[in-house]
Amino acid sequence: MLTDIRYVTIYVTDQDRALDFYTGGLGLEKRLDFPGPDGRFLTVGLPGSPVQLILWSHAAAAGQPGDAGVPGPLILESEDLRKDFEIMRRRGVTFEESEPVDYPFGVRVEAVDPDGNRISLRQQRKP
């Protein structure tokens, strides 16, 4: 029986640039970084979470998500999205919206990594 999600792959054209975005911009931590037979195996993750994102080197435009409004390959949850949004914006993260948007389920905003991958940031509505 399956028990956990361990890795999710995000395709990037420059692993060092992606590492800077995901750690310096979004605040994730670097986990693994070593050469492998098929290329550099580089991962990041949220502090305290076992799930890791593989920042896998790939040709430009490969694995890119669809148009605006379509969920990106990664959805991150926040306890205070408006506060996190301001911190990330000061760090240079690019967003599709000028401010987080209220929805019936809570609050959301879409960040964009240097390769155009859309990162959905969410905060659930508190009961």
UniProtKB/TrEMBL annotation:
PROSITE patterns: VOC. It comes from the Bacteria. InterPro entries: Glyas_Bleomycin-R_OHBP_Dase, Glyas_Fos-R_dOase_dom, VOC_core. Gene3D superfamilies: 2,3-Dihydroxybiphenyl 1,2-Dioxygenase, domain 1 (3.10.180.10). Residues 4-124 form the VOC domain. This is VOC family protein.
